[in-house]
Amino acid sequence: MSGSTIVTPTIFREYIGMGDYIDHFPDEMINADIKEFHFILCFATETHVDGKGTGLFDRNWSFTSFSPEKVAELKKKLKNVKVVISIGGNGPEDTFNPKNNEDWIVNATSSIKGIILNYQTKLPNDDVLYGIDGIDINYEKISSSISDFSNCIGEVIKQLKVDPDVSKFMKVVSIAPTEGSQSYYLKLYRDNKGYIDWIDYKFYNQYFNTVEDFEKLFKILVTEYGTALDKFLVGVSTYEAIKSKTIIEGCEYLLNRRSLVGVFVWDAKPSAPAYTPEREIQKLLAKK
């Protein structure tokens, strides 16, 4: 592995907002000993016309359940919490396939900025301006060229990072590769690694017979990205208990060797209200 060979676990991330089963931020799942806990709201999806993306994004999560005021209250209560919005989607209707790259970049930058600005708020008797902490790039289906994906997404990230209205809220940028989209995200990361804070690889989309199989893929991916271990997170799914058991065992193996900085979970809906996998994983992270 390149870069750092020893890391301290610091971060846990949880996707939330899919469907309407959970109507609040379940802060009861948060382990206070985790340095950073991120809720990732999913998804902000774009409008498509004749199968082509417009770059015009709007939120799909409940604005009532996850309102700017509730984000502010959560962040005021728990200093280790950040809230990130996930851009893209995992359905066939959410494919990345811009009609026109230049127009897409302009529209995407403007519409994502609008969502972020909509979350800037102050609480009564509090002068702190609260808001969204960043974005997560999460297209599972991509029909463009690898270069177009990297150029379009990379340019939007850069423009948001320097925009005077939202740059102070763009503390976190993550990407969420899968086995099928790996070549796209690898190019995106290599072209923009100075702007990307976390690589959230969806291990749960692949099968592992043993912990050794999991560790082998982990090492390959870290080497491919050429990044330090302190950027690379392992993805666990609450939808597939058997598969996730091997991944969690693999995470414990990496933690014992000080090779894992954190974990993200897809998503909160199946594990509510007990949030057993989330609590188990955070406990593993916190004790290292």
From TrEMBL:
InterPro entries: Chitinase-like (IPR000677), GH (IPR017853), Glyco_hydro18_cat (IPR001223). One of its GO terms (biological process) is carbohydrate metabolic process. Residues 10-288 form the GH18 domain. This is GH18 domain-containing protein.
